[in-house]
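Predict structure. Chain length: 430.
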Amino acid sequence: MRANPLFGLCLAFAVVASGCATSFSPRPVAEVPFKARAQTQVQDGLTVTVAVPTAEEAEAIYGVDLADKGLQAVWVQVRNEEDLPYWFLTSGLDPSYYSASEAAYAFRSAGGDGQAVLDHFESLQFKNPVYPGATASGFLVVHRDEGYKAVDIDLISREKARSFTYMILDPTFKGDYTLVDFDALYGSGEIVEIEEEEALRRELEKLPCCTANKGGTGYGDPLNLVFVGNNEDIFPAYARRGWHGTEIIWRKAAWRTVKSFLVGGRYRYSPVSPLYVYGRRQDLAAQKARGNIHQRNHLRMWLSPLRFRGKRVWVGQISRDIGVKFTTKTPILTTHVIDPYVDEARRYLLEDLAYSQALARVGFVKGVGEATRESPRFNLGDDPYFTDGLRVVMFFEPRPRTLADIDLVDWEPPPRPLTSLNREVSDARR
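Prediction complete.
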């Protein structure tokens, strides 16, 4: 009798699949130390605590490797001391969150018939509502983000709505921001406290026009961004809009970058080359990648010594990457080619963060210096760029804020499209 080749192929596939099956061996939640990094906030009678296990901690809790499937667990605890029940809106945390049964189905082979996995996933799930005088806690399974996780918790009752925002760092991620002690960057005598808006404007106009190389002998991309606000308002706004942190250049990151470059894949945390302001490389960087490594929006930020009404002032640079080229100027032998119209990237970021629910005010100041299409400037990668010479200043406040809540600071006239938009908003308000 001749063997059926299709049967043989199916048998081989079954053997391979069974060999790759994940074992199911969860540990009690109390034995996993992720809650040591928990953050707590209080609003009136609601106390909300949030923690995000690392990939290894989540694997211990769930008994399977969530990260391998692109999943991440977020732990939430709500203590309700008010007189109404509250519901946690899970879509506010992740509009594409996973139900317990959906997430468990991805690991059904780990627990025999899959029932043990499903029962365990459901036992961990956060359950609504949170009744008066009660405390509810549990996990939500969402899409995985490396580096940091912006966690938005929205709770509603029949008469009230409460919003909480957290920025949770992953201690296992080698982000560029881990190299900086932000509290030690400036001594008390170096901090410049500013109360008046015109004084802030003058200080921002005195900033360098551009980034520089390490020795300060050459200019790079224009310094066209300013952010004013508390860290807990600025950085969750970025994460909420899909911006990701960048890794330092180390063995694993270099390999992921080269592999993405060769196959044209996506790498959301790809390192960025160093540029310098205040005599130091960027304090942190962020990027929003497209489907492959060749194209992305990315920005760099530096904490300035300025403080406006007690809030930190960050300066930064943004450009839109449209391709990749080889270079001997970086350790990974590649660098991006930027879109020469850098004002478009600046406008994109402003519009993007307007949807973050945290942008409160916007203004424009001089300081970059105009460069025309006919007479462009060049960055350190020898890419040309042109600009109207303005830097955008964005002020952040706690969410939620609507588009109609965003005010325009009366400094330099904004670019024409924004002027038209602001006029339409003003007319609508009248």
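Summary: The two ends are 87 Å apart (CA to CA).
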